[in-house]
Every structure is written in C-alpha cells, then in structure tokens.
Amino acid sequence: MISLIVNPIAGMGGKVALKGTDGVVDEAIRRGARPVAPDLVRLFLRELSTYPEARSIVFLTGPGPLGEDYLREFGFHFKVIPMEIHHREVEGVKIPDTTAEHTKKLAREMLGKVNLIVFAGGDGTAKDIVSVVDEKIPILGIPTGVKMYSGVFAISPEKAAEVLVKFLQGEVKLEEREVRDMDEEAFRGDELKVKTYGKALVPVVEDLVQGSKEAVKAGDEGGLEALADAVAEEILEGEGIYFLGSGSTVKRIKDKLGIDGTLLGVDVVEVKNGRAKFLVKDATEKDLLSFLDRNPKIVVTVIGGTNFLFGRGNQQFSAEVLRRIPRENVIVVATPDKLTGPVRVYTGNKEVDEELRGYIRVRIGPWMEKLVRVV
Prior knowledge:
Number of domains: 2
Order of helices and strands: EHHEHEEEHEHEHEHEHEHEEHEEHEEHEE
Number of strands: 18
Strand order of the largest sheet: 12-11-10-13-15-17-18
Radius of gyration: 21 Å
Shape: globular
Helix content: 25-40%
Low-confidence stretches: 215-219
Largest sheet: 7 strands, mixed
Distance between the termini: 32 Å
Structural class: alpha/beta
Mean pLDDT: 91
Strand content: 25-35%
C-alpha cells in the first residue's frame, strides 16, 4: 500500500513574494495568491495514470483535499483515514483550514501500514512527516512548496510519478537524505537560517530526485566578488529594466549596483545614465507582469545542490512571466562550484519549460562563460 498526503495550502506564498506559506495564508490570499498544490497533485496523478503498474496501487490517504479528492478524480483505488476537515473563506477564496497537526496525524496512521509515503508539500511538510515516521517508512515529495531545499523531492510532479513506478518495480535505491527547513519569519526578513530537522529514507533515481540546497563555500568569495563587479559594470553601461533574482550571487551584484536589494527576493530596477534606480523591492509575480511591455532582462543564479534555475524559491518568475521574456534576455551568473551538472527549470507549463531548455551561457567569471545544458 502507498500513502498520499497532500498539504493543500503549500506553495501559496511563492508568487506573492512571501517565500513560504507557514502562518501567512491569509496574507498570501490578500496579495492575490491561489492554491497551487491541487493542480500539481493532478499533474502527478495524470502522469501516474499512464503507467499500467499504477492501476494495482491501493492508496491510503486523507479525506477530501488531503488526498481523497484527487485520487477519486483520477479513478485510483484508495482507503481514507477518517478525519474532520473544516473550510474557511478569506477574501472570497475558500481554503481547507488545515495545520501541521493534520499532516502529523495522517503520518502516524501510516505507520506499519504503507511501504512508501508520497506527499505533496514543501520543506515544512517534509519536516512534519519525518518528525513522526523518522526512517521507519521511505518518503517521496511531490514538489508543491516554495523553497524545497530538502533532498526528499522529485524534480517535478511528473518525475515523482516515474520514481513511484520504479519503486513498485524494485528499481530504486533507498538513500538517507537530510530534511532541512528555513525559519520562514527570518527568511521574510531577508535572513537565511537553515536547520536540519532529521533524516529520511528516500527512493532515489538519478536525475529524478533532487539534492539538498547547499551554501556557497567560503573559498568562492574572491571569485564571487570579481564576477559581481564585472556583471554590475556591464549592466550600468546599458539601459533598461532588470529583474534581479534571489541568492547570494545576485545579491552581490545588487550591492555593486548601489541598491539595497533583497537577498531572498526579486527586485526590479531601471538602469539609465550609468545608475540603477529601484522600482520595486521584493516584487511579486503581479509586479513583474506590469513591466513586461518594457522588454526587461532577468539576472538569476543557480541554486547550489538542487541545480534549479527557475522553480525553487523564485516562483515570482512564473510561466506567465517567462513566456513573455525572450530567452536571450535571461542572464545567468554562477560560480563554477554551483555547476555540478545540468541546470533545471520547472514552471508547471511544458511549453515554457521547453523554450528554456537546451544550452544557455552562464557567466562564471569576469571574462569567462560556460555553456550549460538546461533540462
């Protein structure tokens, strides 16, 4: 038997620049957020339904939006763990009134009953599950959160389906992976605090399951400084609108441009006459959409460990934003230690992702570029 646990509010803070959803669901909705997890779970189940092996699965799941609704929609066999779920309405948006305790209760009920827990959520959901099951049951994450820095997630909902099938076929290896989470309150204040909360057994298939987020090593400091100097100088030599992404590499460029940019958010600046002027600090998807008629350029880096360019921690760069920005307007900067293989994109839109795939030039030094494959 396989478990499916869905955190129905996971990921709502991403596009609206809240960098997480814990404790800020109401604020996310007020900023225009809508649930994203249900559609990503549907992508997982739609892909899973294409495999003949999947029809023999019996899922153990939560009621309604915690799993039952989606399994019923796709005709899978399932058993429901009884649990009372209430809903509430915020700004006209009806959402399940769920907490971490719902996730933990479901996980407790899975002990001794399932061979694998598949869950839809982010780092917080992974932390809640592991706090209950430890390494007694393997877990696999369908990535629906904002950050997802733990090494327990498939690289996409569709790939999660493929990993599950390979698990059923006995073609995976179980690895011990760290479950990590950030202090979201500090994160929203532009401070990076990451803690390891435990370890989980994860069914790993190469290129289908991501690694853990890694910090930039101290030894890269000199190279990072020189790279930031060179890129900032070139930006100031031109004119136009720039969307400056998150991360320490791009933050260094923001500093060189003379703006008090965010470390963990997306900032919008206008460059004119050799100066950078702030237009929006910590921009939302809606903010970015409002500048698309001005032919903006994007400056982003690669997340170390996970190798993601778009789709982890910068959901403001949504499919709607990226489909309207020419590929040549995407400037990628990264120190060489981050380029451990192909880089990944996942917007949830196959056409947009396909447009971004192929080879892209990555600026790795003041006078050096590297062609890197985007998958």
